[in-house]
């Protein structure tokens, strides 16, 4: 069980990444911004919540 969890974490995207991409797309409608904010992950999500 532990090995499969490590594989998902190693090759999959995290919930924070998916959430930041969705928020970025809904605000900016730009693929480039969505990719950039996906790299920032939870930092962008928290920033978005604090500034809105």
TrEMBL record:
Keywords: Membrane, Transmembrane, Transmembrane helix. The chain crosses the membrane at residues 7-25, 31-50. It comes from the Bacteria. This is Uncharacterized protein. It comes from Shewanella frigidimarina (strain NCIMB 400). The lineage of its organism: Bacteria, Pseudomonadati, Pseudomonadota, Gammaproteobacteria, Alteromonadales.
